[in-house]
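Example protein as discussed:

>
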Amino acid sequence: MKTKVLNIEDLKSDTAQSALAEAGRLLRSGQLVAFPTETVYGLGANGLDGAACAKIYEAKGRPSDNPLILHVADRAMVEGIAEDIPPMAEKLMAAFLPGPMTLILRRTSIVPDRITGGLATVGVRMPESAAARAMIRAAGVPVAAPSANLSGRPSPTTAASVLRDMNGRIPLILDGGACHFGVESTIVDCTGPVATILRPGAITREMLQEVLGGVRLDPALVGANVTPKAPGMKYKHYAPRAPLTLLEGAPQKMATAFRRHVRHLQKEGRTVGILASDEVCTELEDLVPDELRKPYGPQGDLTAIAAHIYEALIAFDDTAADALLGEGTTERGLGLAIMNRLHKASGFHTIEI
């Protein structure tokens, strides 16, 4: 299969409109299309067609019990796939949608069992991305979509990274430029008495608390072995090919700690790659060559870190690095989502400094 890449950055152009129409035709005919959102690129299929959704699992090598999220363009689509919308979900929709949030709701019978991992619930997301919503409208159906990468690998935030994993596996990639947020949507379970965060994202715990007054973190976020109610809760995710170890602790001690651990690994004959702040990367110029240092922005700049970590992890695969050291950050605000991704990418291999 030859994979076509069509640019839709100028959404109003004839070229983009033609590409969106083609994407809609492919989705309605049971094919897969990769598309941009404000978080990461998604790998989409007709969310009401179980056979089409099965192709997502095949293309990604994704475990079959890992649920998919249904992406919708408007409220009418939500009501078609959700059995009911409880008051807490109504409040969240009013505050944050369209936006980088997924709501877990009880599903209607039209939602295929194939995408829910055997659960009676479904993840519903209305992207902030105008391009994503335009594609969904062109398809005329909810679009089931995980991230557009091979299962377990870092999620793509550019079309080029999608092509790296999906070339020859899918017919079409819509190129909408780099994604804004860089980490996946916040997933909130609205089926219980208290809203529960199943996956942290750009809509932070603090933002949710402002709207609802109370919210909790699911035990699975700290390693509990439970049936996954949402993508990313059960399986290793976001991992580069070389093993990653995180250094966590006081920012002012980071550069010294990195220098010590880099020297130790180099003495063992390892080629070390660094994913860290501008400050740490600058301090290591004499030890680690440019191509093995991937700065993600200033220390504490959570927006920059979120936007850069996936592409940096992907970029290490084109280097000789066989050991990676990453710099952790706060778990407040957007940092909770960043550290969730970095912990999964490292397999929770952390050194406290």
Observations:
- The first strand starts at residue 4 and ends at 7.
